[in-house]
């Protein structure tokens, strides 16, 4: 049984219209990309799939995704003018509507964004009520809502790595809510996505980053 | 005892057994079940109330023309109309509900209460209530808690989403929340508050969700105004001790049953009703994107 709603689901969220799935949820997907990139992008290509492909303009999802990519929260009044703000900031953006992707959720967005020498790719679904599910990060399958703090760790596929990381987090008093792990292949790169109930300390993140077998650690603060 | 909002009957019994006002169990639910501090709940609701009032004002002062062109400053037009069909208060109620909902359609800031599609109803109802009856903000917070309690039960036993239960689930629930809040604020007892909710649901049952071009504009905006009007007519009926005959919990069940048997073309898919009319189709053709790349079925990313 799903967890019951809060008073603030009934009187809220405070958001920019017109639709929780087409604006609030889309801003959140953009925010995840923003956090992964650590900045607003210099260049981005956003693909709107299926239902989103026909409706993204009418519902303002194009403005919403750019607003998220620039780090604006879901109730930011500037979302309405995000296309202009992006142009002023010199962000080169491109939208691509793609239909007929029958294996994908009706409201799916894929973002490819670059800033300096950093480049990321994120695929997310807007599930309704502003709730999202991130299903792919940089080619790795995953499944998280970004409603709580999330760690995305790319590391060599070595024995004991998951147990080691879980132990470090436990020592920092972080309770793991969910965890998923995928790899490119045996002894290749693996990607560990961990949702935690409270944020880890910076020193914990730094420690993990300095491990020889860890390629990268991304700490995504919850996006609400 | 863990307070869980299963139905209106148990809410009423809990209030009677513990000698509580109607809003108190909702507050207790949010603190014990959701872990929010009392002060945070009050602050959060005051913020929501502030955003609702601002939305009404924004709709009156800024240009409310939507990207599709279907929405064009209706709230302002009603407010400034020289012809008053019923009373100045009624004119303002309709104007405010339109105004706040137009802000939503035009990408402004609103409170989804309970949803973005119904975001004009509580602002219209409650701003009018406060002004007409000089109700202070403390009482308005209690009204919002009562409204939230009503919505929590409807969500549990029917639905609040147009895609699941049709328009009745969104605007019907918001109207029921508003109607209950009016009767509560004006000193009605629990029976009268719940009768207001029941009568409102009876008036909103069966409404389908058939948005033109799939946009949250037509008929959503005008339905927010009519729902606000129904909230007031139901409140007037209930506070005058007219019985709903069918108890409120059974009205909610009926809403759930109707929502379940509604065909999917009437649930936000824009495939039936007003969306499928000649003009509705023509508008969809104009505003939707048709230059879409079709990918091979094998490709997934």
Break the fold down into its secondary structure elements and pairings.
The complex is a heterodimer of chains A (224) and B (301).
Chain A: H1 7-10, E1 14-16, H2 20-37, E2 43-49, H3 50-55, H4 61-69, H5 82-88, E3 92-99, E4 108-115, E5 118-128, E6 131-137, E7 140-144, E8 149-156, H6 161-171, E9 176-183, E10 189-196, H7 202-210, E11 214-220
Parallel strand pairs in A: 2-3
Antiparallel strand pairs in A: 2-4, 4-5, 5-6, 6-7, 8-10, 8-11, 9-10
Helix pairs in contact in A: 2-4
Chain B: H1 8-18, H2 24-34, H3 38-61, H4 74-80, H5 88-105, E1 109-111, H6 121-133, H7 137-157, H8 162-165, H9 167-185, H10 190-204, H11 220-239, H12 248-261, H13 278-287, E2 293-294
Helix pairs in contact in B: 3-5, 3-6, 3-7, 4-5, 5-6, 5-11, 6-9, 6-11, 7-9, 9-10, 9-11, 10-11, 10-12
Report what the structure shows.
- The complex is a heterodimer of chains A (224) and B (301).
- Chain A has seven helices and eleven strands.
- By secondary structure, chain A is α+β, with helices and mostly antiparallel strands.
- The model of chain A has no long low-confidence stretch (mean pLDDT 93).
- Chain A has helices at residues 7-10, 20-37, 50-55, 61-69, 82-88, 161-171, 202-210, and strands spanning 14-16, 43-49, 92-99, 108-115, 118-128, 131-137, 140-144, 149-156, 176-183, 189-196, 214-220.
- Chain A has two domains: 8-138, D-3-phosphoglycerate dehydrogenase, domain 3 (60s Ribosomal Protein L30, Chain: A, 2-Layer Sandwich); 150-220, 2-Layer Sandwich (Alpha-Beta Plaits).
- With 301 residues, chain B is mainly alpha-helical.
- Chain B has a single domain, classed as 2-methylcitrate dehydratase PrpD (Orthogonal Bundle).
- In chain B, helix 3 (38-61) crosses helix 7.
- The longest helix of chain B is centred in the first third of the chain and has 24 residues, at 38-61.
- The termini of chain B are far apart.
- The mean pLDDT of chain B is 94.
- The interface between A and B is large, with 47 and 62 residues.
